[in-house]
Design goal:
Helix content: 40-55%
Mean pLDDT: 86
Number of helices: 11
Oligomer: single chain
Shape: elongated
Number of strands: 3
Strand order of the largest sheet: 1-3-2
Structural class: mainly alpha
Distance between the termini: 33 Å
Largest sheet: 3 strands, antiparallel
Strand content: under 5%
Low-confidence stretches: none
């Protein structure tokens, strides 16, 4: 990973970098970016390399499942390439990291809209499918302000409203009856331990591995 790659990674995930670091780390990040800009303007690759190492140390404070942490964990900095980043890119990152963090309510609404965009059944569609009229316990039910209750489609056997047993077991672990949005986020978000999105891995990854990953999360809370 080059210094330019690192900067573009920060630019892509600036909102969660701001919310994932405390004020001291954000201050250090800002100072290091300005140092990098000075060293780049002076065409001093060793100085840029030192700044990159400081950036990486500061960013290590992010949660291990943060996209920046995952990307940095898989790539080493190629400090011997004598490559200088673009001043334009540095300025862009300095600008966005100086932006006030987004409103938590807006982030929550955006997250819920993302989950509601996943394939799902309405209550009427669920009732029309085989095994559909009787809704068993253990399903994620998301309330859409426009379309009412929605059942994420991954929970069911193909072409039916019969819940997958492993989904019901994991939903119980995730307490989907109390926190359906949190359970849906686990199923429909990236999972570092599994190496993919759990809902997409149904029937591909052994059920025991899926359950273990969910149990690990519950144990960490």
């Amino acid at each position: 990973m080059t210094s330019e790659d690192l900067l573009r990674l920060l630019e892509s995930h600036w909102t969660t970098v701001i919310t994932g670091l405390d004020d001291d780390d954000l201050g250090q990040l800002s100072r290091t970016l300005r140092e990098m800009k000075e060293e780049t303007a002076a065409e001093n690759p060793p100085g840029v390399a030192r700044a990159v190492r400081r950036l990486r140390r500061t960013l290590s404070a992010l949660p291990p499942d943060h996209p920046v942490s995952e990307e940095l964990g898989g790539h080493r900095y190629a400090s011997g390439t004598h490559e200088l980043p673009s001043l334009t890119t540095i300025d862009a990152v300095i600008d966005v990291l100086g932006t006030p963090p987004p409103d938590p309510g807006e982030l929550l609404r955006a997250a819920r809209l993302r989950l509601l965009a996943a394939p799902a059944l309405t209550e009427a569609e669920h009732a029309a499918l085989p095994s559909g009229p009787d809704t068993p316990a253990g399903l994620i039910r998301l309330r859409d302000p426009e379309h009412g209750i929605r059942y994420p489609r991954f929970q069911f056997e193909a072409g039916t409203a019969e819940p997958l047993p492993v989904v019901r077991r994991i939903n119980e672990l995730l307490r989907a009856d109390r926190d359906p949005w949190g359970a849906a986020d686990w199923w429909l978000g990236g999972n570092r331990w599994l190496g993919g999105v759990p809902a997409d891995l149904l029937g591909i990854v052994p059920d025991d591995d899926l359950e273990h990953a969910a149990a690990e999360l519950v144990g960490a809370l």
